[in-house]
Amino acid sequence: MTFRLTALTDLAEMGFDTIIDVRSPSEYAEDHLPGAINLPALDDAERARVGTLYKQVSPFMARKLGAALVARNAAHHLETALAEMPGGWRPLIYCWRGGQRSGSISLILSEVGWRVARLEGGYKAWRRQVITCLHDRPFPAPVILLDGNTGSAKTEVLRLLPERGVQVLDLEGMANHRGSLFGGQGPQPSQRAFEGRLALALASLDPARPVLVEAESSRIGNCLLPPTLWRAMKAAPRIAIVAPAAARADYLLRAYGDLLADPGRLAAIVESLRPLHPAARVEEWQALVLRGAWRELAAELMLHHYDPRYNRHRARTGGGVQDVQVDCLRPEAIPGLADRIAALVTTPR
To answer: Where is the Rhodanese domain (predicted)?
Structure first.
């Protein structure tokens, strides 16, 4: 049977036991349907081999080779990844366009007796839904920005708010990045994978309730925000956490402990700021890195790099600002701050 995707939420509603991407590993790595596993019909080298044969010899010879390779790979999957699947197992299979690769694997698995569905249009059908969601429709819910200068615990507060009844979009979580030069957390998703995560989150929003989004630039690390979201963020009202510089510096030392444990990496990031600041200032920051003067370095970076940029960015945006004053950002104070933010978001205006 074939399955037609009419909305991003269809996958969850249909309740397939497993979603299987039978494209090559490199195609899967760039982007795939949420939760999909990769059981390739052809690996990257095999796919290239079949493609070359198709162009240089004949389509018939390419199909014959492809059929042999797909059958061999399907047998391997049946003997390994699928060996323990029960008789009532319901997988969804897809490839790039819903063509030969997914058709071949679906046929073999169906012959076993499993209730196999094949995604009509393949990955491209999913991608069309993502593009429609992010680029062709207005943003689905009212946006409120959670703002505050660097070190004001915005991300930590944001992640406490769902349990307090607040609808949120965790953009930094989806991008696997803390939103600054110092914010790398390991490999980021591809742009397409980031967009897929974001589109699925938007499709799940309640349009009758506001959604709280952390104030960001239009780029989070290497991931670009789609225009509809960026426009909604620029026009949105803001709730701004306002904390003393000393409290923010202390918070940064806790939040970026992984970076402080790697002075070489920290020095390289500071060096990347050289085009933006006088040479003497960058040399002073590098001296602080060498001395391990982390609190002084955090204060300097806030004063001369981050705070001025935040202020210039805010001057170019639209909505009003409601300040939430705090004196302390120690761990025991963060839940109370989240309570105050939640009350502002959930109280009718």
So the answer is: 13-131
Judging by DSSP bridges, how do beta strands 219-220 and 223-224 pair with one another?
Answer: antiparallel
Instruction: Please give the model's pTM, rounded to 2 decimal places.
Output: 0.88
Which one of 95, 133, 223, 328 is the catalytic residue?
95
Instruction: List the CATH number of the domain containing 189.
Output: 3.40.50
The pLDDT of residue 79 is above 60? yes
Q: Is the CB of residue 120 less than 8 Å from the CB of residue 5?
A: yes
CATH number at residue 11: 3.40.250.10
Q: Give percent of the chain with pLDDT exceeding 70.
A: 96
Q: Are 184 and 126 part of one and the same domain? A: no
Both 86 and 232 in one domain: the answer is: no
| Cα–Cα distance measured from residue 244 to residue 261, given in angstroms and rounded to the nearest whole number | 25
User: Is residue 48 domain-shared with residue 159, that is, in the same domain?
Assistant: no
Contact 292, 207 (CB under 8 A): no
328 is annotated as an active-site residue = no
Say whether both 336 and 201 belong to one domain: yes
Co-location of 220 and 328 in the same domain = yes
- The predicted-structure confidence for 97-147, as pLDDT tens digits, reads as follows 988 999 999 999 999 999 999 999 999 999 999 999 999 999 999 999 999
* Structural domain count, the chain: 2
Contact (CB, 8 A) for 170 and 237: no
| Torsion (CA) 102, 106, 109, 115 in degrees, nearest 10 | 130
- For residue 312, CA distances in Å to 152, 157, 217, 223 come to 18, 24, 11, 22
- Location of structure tokens 């943003």: 139
CA 233 from centroid of its chain's CA atoms: 17
Q: What is the DSSP letter of 185?
A: -
Q: How far apart are the first and last CA of the chain?
A: 50
> CA-to-CA distance for 134 and 127, rounded, in angstroms?
11
